[in-house]
């Protein structure tokens, strides 16, 4: 069994979601550093990873370094890491908008960089990660990252120019899904259900509907037709969705998030 040494710089919300899945593989040896002592103490306590006291220590202890800080903090973290980086390292960035070229140019010329966009359902093993190869990264690096991120859900390998779109659909997507679940549940509550029952009915329905789509036998449009009886309840509901331009609103939601990811580009 090949041991993988993985180090996180930044152990906030998305890092915790990734660590929660990666710790299950005994082949992974995980360490982390966060400039907030409470953040690193929390992950050490929760997941039993090794805490370190600087980014330099992460570079010393890990071959794979995951940059999990806010986009505007990536520059300072790469500067801090640079003197400690070698061609033996692989840098993986989860930051929205930040290009692999920005990271390579601010680290070392031969740096192998992979840009990924995971999402918080990684906590349940049902994450979706899009990943793309920087110019110096190899197919072996992509294969390694694919295996790593498969521990927390599904993986799609994309050309980097599509990462803004992936960020908008699956990176930010859980927030839209939570919003839809909450809105449908609120409708149920207004029709007499308790909020607890309404959330259960709404969330389990989203899970079941998503599973049917992923089974891949039918398109979402075909599945809509199968639920909808002419003159029945679904048709009455869908008419309201159309009247309130819900589909168009969701399209515009994704386009706005992709545009913002593009604005964060460095
Ligand atoms: N939250 C999400 O659902 C997703 C977030 N991302 C990306 O992940 C990155 C992190 O986001 P979150 O985890 O949500 O943020 P967060 O604020 O929860 O975590 C960031 C962590 O980085 C630490 N940090 C900041 N500067 C540092 C430094 N110089 N050295 C070491 N640690 C430092 C902070 O103390 C904090 O604990 C962002 O770039 C975001 O675009 C990507 C996919 C999904
Ligand atoms: O909202 C954000 O910018 C990050 C990136 C994707 C999910 N959260």
Automatic annotation (TrEMBL):
Localization of this protein: Cytoplasm
Broad class of enzyme this protein falls into: oxidoreductase
Record-listed E.C. numbers: 1.5.1.2
Gene3D superfamilies for this protein: NAD(P)-binding Rossmann-like Domain, ProC C-terminal domain-like
Function: Catalyzes the reduction of 1-pyrroline-5-carboxylate (PCA) to L-proline.
This protein's UniProt keywords: Amino-acid biosynthesis, Cytoplasm, NADP, Oxidoreductase, Proline biosynthesis
Protein name: Pyrroline-5-carboxylate reductase
A biological process term (GO) from this entry: L-proline biosynthetic process
Pyrroline-5-carboxylate reductase dimerisation domain mapped to chain residues: 160-264
Oxidoreductase as UniProt keyword: yes
Domain Pyrroline-5-carboxylate reductase catalytic N-terminal, chain residue ranges per copy: 6-97
Reaction equation(s) it catalyzes: L-proline + NAD(+) = (S)-1-pyrroline-5-carboxylate + NADH + 2 H(+); L-proline + NADP(+) = (S)-1-pyrroline-5-carboxylate + NADPH + 2 H(+)
GO cellular component: cytoplasm
Coiled coil: none
Listed pathway(s): Amino-acid biosynthesis; L-proline biosynthesis; L-proline from L-glutamate 5-semialdehyde: step 1/1
HAMAP family, A to Z: P5C_reductase
Residues at which NADP(+) binds: 68-71
PANTHER family (UniProt xref): PYRROLINE-5-CARBOXYLATE REDUCTASE, PYRROLINE-5-CARBOXYLATE REDUCTASE 3
């Amino acid at each position: 069994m090949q041991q993988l040494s993985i180090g996180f710089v930044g152990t906030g919300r998305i890092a915790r979601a990734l660590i929660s899945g990666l710790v299950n593989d005994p082949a992974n040896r995980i360490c982390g550093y966060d400039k907030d002592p409470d953040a690193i103490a929390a992950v050490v306590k929760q997941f039993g990873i090794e805490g370190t006291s600087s980014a330099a220590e992460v570079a010393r202890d890990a071959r794979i370094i995951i940059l999990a800080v806010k986009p505007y903090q990536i520059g300072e973290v790469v500067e801090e890491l640079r003197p400690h980086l070698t061609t033996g390292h692989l840098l993986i960035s989860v930051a929205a908008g930040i290009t692999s070229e920005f990271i390579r140019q601010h680290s070392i010329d031969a740096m192998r960089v992979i840009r990924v966009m995971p999402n918080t359902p990684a906590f349940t093993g049902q994450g979706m990660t899009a990943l793309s190869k920087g110019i110096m990264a190899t197919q072996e690096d992509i294969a390694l990252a694919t295996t790593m991120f498969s521990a927390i859900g599904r993986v799609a390998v994309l050309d980097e120019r599509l990462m803004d779109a992936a960020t908008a659909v699956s990176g930010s997507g859980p927030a839209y899904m939570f919003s839809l679940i909450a809105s449908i549940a609120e409708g149920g509550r207004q029709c007499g259900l308790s909020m607890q029952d309404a959330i259960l009915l709404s969330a389990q329905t989203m899970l079941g509907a998503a599973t049917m789509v992923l089974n891949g036998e039918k398109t979402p449009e075909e599945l809509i037709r199968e639920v909808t009886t002419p003159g029945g309840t679904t048709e009455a509901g869908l008419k309201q969705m159309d009247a309130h331009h819900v589909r168009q609103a969701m399209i515009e939601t994704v386009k706005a998030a992709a545009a913002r990811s593009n604005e964060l580009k460095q």
